[in-house]
Amino acid sequence: MGTPYRGAEAGEFAAGGDTARTISSAIADRQPDSSEDHKLQMRAIEPPHTPTNIERSGLTSATVQELILKTLYLSDRQYGVEIARELRLPFQVIEAPLRVLKDEKLLEVPSGHPIGPASYQFQLTQMGRTRSHEAFTRCRYVGPAPVPLSDYEEQCRRQSVAGLRCTPNSLGKAFSDLIMRRDLLAELGPAVCSGRSVFLYGPPGNGKSMVARGLGRYLNHYGGEIFIPYAIEAEGAIVTMFDPTLHKAVDGDVASQPAGSAETLGMGNEGNIDTRWRRIRRPVIITGGELTLDMLDLRYNAESNIHTAPMHVKANGGVFLIDDFGRQIVSPRDLLNRWILPLEERIDYLTLATGKKFAVPFEQMIVFSTNLDPRELVDEAFLRRIRNKIKIGPPDRDHFGDIFKFHCKSREIRYVPEAVDFLYSNYYDRGKTPRSSDARDLLETIISICRYENRPVRLTPELMAEATKRFFCQL
Predict the structure, then answer these.
(1) CB hemisphere CA count around 37 (13 angstroms)
(2) DSSP 249
């Protein structure tokens, strides 16, 4: 029969695999922001509420029955509250399906307590084991019950990036560790408020990727927390959504709660939130030259009959960054054509293994970052759909001096203005275009030389001349 698939917590079928990257984990250790901006965003998002009956769960009794059978197949016997905990549903939702399974002699109750059915212990009969095996042949998904596609659509609209509150103060905090031209925040702020696509362009080495990550950092800390389901049910198929490698959960998983707690008894939880959903920080998912068109489609595992959402769907409510745009294996035109409808209609269409299509929300800030000439990559029709086009150009002299000073401080090197004067008089004033990354890379070269020669790091004219000769050499 093969190995069953238990929910999405194992991250086994994560869309994009190692090719998708996230900065959520890199900033997860920072303390949550307690500012009024952050609190306002938190209040703005209404969570999905716990269903009080099977109709409100959006599931059929047959779907719940199959999940119960597969859960018991793997665990031999469980109390009613434990089954509810596995399915992340209140016991009153699964009580009627349990009764049907018992009446059909697929379950038996070897023991129980007089406080009610939630305390009964259930196990499969031989007929029940046969029915469970049949359920596994159809789909091996076991774990939190899926939410209906309609509920997912509604929640995505609630927590859309569009319309987020953004102030110069909060945006400045998110970019506090970057040295940028002074008017750049004034361009980025309206882009965040629009929640629409952003096209970052300009020569390499001037911080486009860092700016994109700064946007993600802003959404992580000031965009509030959003909700993503473990899985959704669409056109009769299971599509897993929550991916612990890409989504930073900020709640406690109810499965880790004691069996007798209020959460597992289905008598309530934090804010009466439906525990089929996880509360996460807004995701920031990054892909680069490895991006291909098939990575933007559902991934299907024929053995388990389970689909996994593509990475851009997992980015809903956050940022999806396509770095090094134009350097993918797939042609830029084909890649851009893939985004025309989602950018225009705010929906995307996915195709199941059966050939059925269904629509999903496209509620994210998609960021294209390129150091190639935009005129060679995109046509006017596509540029019209990109609401925010921001050029990240080379720094002027004052800006470069600030960057050089910043990197000296971070490396505990004494800054001397003459080092910047040397670079301009010997290189930048003679036709070489400065790059923001030059300061960092040149200082790393100087440190390497000093480490090898076992001498202290000082920005002397001799050392600057030796380092720049190596760093700026023509190949």
Answers:
(1) 19
(2) B
Q: Which two tokens stand for residue 361?
A: 């929300």
Burial 366-393 (b: 16+ CB within 10 A, else e): bbbbbbeebeebbeeebeebbebbbebe
Segment 288-334, tens digit of pLDDT = 878 888 899 999 999 999 999 999 999 999 999 888 887 788 887 78
Structure tokens at 298: 């559902």
Amino acid 121 reads Q
Residue pLDDT, tens place only, 242-269? 999 999 999 877 665 544 444 444 434 4
Q: How is residue 3 annotated by DSSP?
A: P
Q: What is the DSSP letter of 15?
A: T
Is residue 90 packed enough to be buried (19+ CB in 10 Å), middle (13-18) or exposed (0-12)?
buried
Residue matched to tokens 């004067």: 421
Strands 284-287 and 347-351: unpaired
* Listed residue (416, 401, 432) closest to 179, CA to CA: 401
DSSP state of 427: T
